[in-house]
Amino acid sequence: MTTARHVVLPLVDTVSVHVVSPHWAVRVVSPLHDVLSEDERRAVLTHNPDSYLHVTSDPLALPEPPGDLGAESVQAKALRRLLDLRAYTPVSEPTLFVYRLTDRGRDHTGVIAGVAVEGFRDGRVLGHEHVQPERVASLVRHYQRVTMRSELVALFHPVDPVITELTARAVERPPLLNFTDASGVNQSIWRAEPAEAAAVTRQLGGQQLYVADGHHRVAAAARLWALAAERTTGQVLCAIYPQDEIELHAFHRRVHGPVDVPALIEGLTEDFDISAAGELDEAPDVGPGCIGLHAAGRWWRLRPRQPLRPEGVAGLDVTMLDQRILRPLLDLDPGATRLQFVPDLRDLDATARKCDADGDVLFTLHAPRIEDVVSVAERREVMSAKTTYVQPKPRTGIFLS
């Protein structure tokens, strides 16, 4: 009896892809659906039939045809339409790409490569977030119907001068693609030379890698690989950045009312020193270990009376908020429907005004450091949902694999 041989793939390898054609890029390339608000998604889906958002939009939010997995989904039809229109050009052989995204005046330069699914399971790539099983299951169903991948998982690695030099050499050449998308973000890609690709994959293969963004996509890819009895390539399409190219922003917490603000303030005094925070109509800056509060038209700063906390998840500001405020004083767990996550890149003053109008309260946090993410990942712990809003956010629709 012959048993199937288990082939161990290199951690990082070249990828076989199609690349969006230059004259299609502006209309096709899109943020992931979960980066956009519901209103933003609806606007794109309504006004741009060529946007890749038609392929990646939440499979639970779009109508599905009846029948089994053999029925073509709305998203699969959208992808087939783009392929029929020749919006993509196949690259002749497997390779690596250098991908630069310029957002808010800052360049983020990384490498596009395939990363072995096994690397996420054996610890060569470490994550830091809990995944929601129902979300993973919906992505698996989506992947079974849309068999080509464009959604990039963002990883990071310790700064490596060899990789820095190789990517710098690549970007000195004319780019294969350069465009500014509808949101004003400039994007460029360069194809690596064979010797560069070999050196980068070898160097990255010896690094400890960490997930910056895309934990649910990783879990879905691993599940799909297992369901396919490991007949797929076993790769996850990734954008891999040096650690110093990653920016971490906070997710703030808006609690929908009604909230008894006097009772909340009274409860906070047990663990926190509370002080008015400057101008009433301006969100205060909050540093590590401090929480901002907007309630009933006023801003406050909350400073814990016991500021020393342990390492890992237990020492994060979001854990302090969850364990000392949201759960005991407002009876909220991180998945409560009354809890809304607000990235700090949005207009907090506008959010605060909406809170006042609706009787809500808003808690603001300082972003974790990249060292905090590494510490949590290496301790095999997981952060609360929406602890970090990671930049850059690689776009979808540039590469198909």
Notable characteristics:
401 residues, alpha+beta, Conserved hypothetical protein from pyrococcus furiosus pfu- 392566-001, domain 2, 2 domains, nine-stranded mixed sheet, seven-stranded antiparallel sheet, 13 helices, 19 strands, 31% helix
Gist?
The chain is an alpha+beta fold. The protein contains 13 helices and 19 strands. It folds into two domains: 234 residues, no CATH class; 142 residues, Conserved hypothetical protein from pyrococcus furiosus pfu- 392566-001, domain 2 (2-Layer Sandwich), CATH 3.30.1760.
Provide a descriptive summary of the structure in words:
With 401 residues, the protein is an alpha+beta fold. The protein folds into two domains: 12-245, no CATH class; 248-389, Conserved hypothetical protein from pyrococcus furiosus pfu- 392566-001, domain 2 (2-Layer Sandwich), CATH 3.30.1760.10. Helix content is 31%, strand content 24%. It has 13 helices and 19 strands. The strands form three sheets. Strands 1, 4, 5, 6, 7, 8, 9, 10 and 11 form a nine-stranded mixed β-sheet that branches. Helix 6 (133-145) crosses helix 9 (215-227) and helix 7 (161-170) runs antiparallel to helix 8 (194-205). The longest helix has 14 residues, at 317-330. Residues 1-5 and 59-69 have low confidence and may be disordered.
Rounded mean pLDDT is 88
Strand tally, please?
19
DSSP strand (E) fraction? 15-25%
Total number of domains: 2
Please describe the biggest sheet, giving its number of strands, its sense, and whether it closes into a barrel. 9 strands, mixed
Segments where pLDDT lies below 50 for 5+ residues?
A: 1-5, 59-69
Gap from first CA to last CA: 35 Å
- Helical coverage, percent range: 25-40%
| Structural class assignment | alpha+beta
Count of DSSP helices? Answer: 13
CA-based gyration radius: 23 Å
- Give the overall form: globular
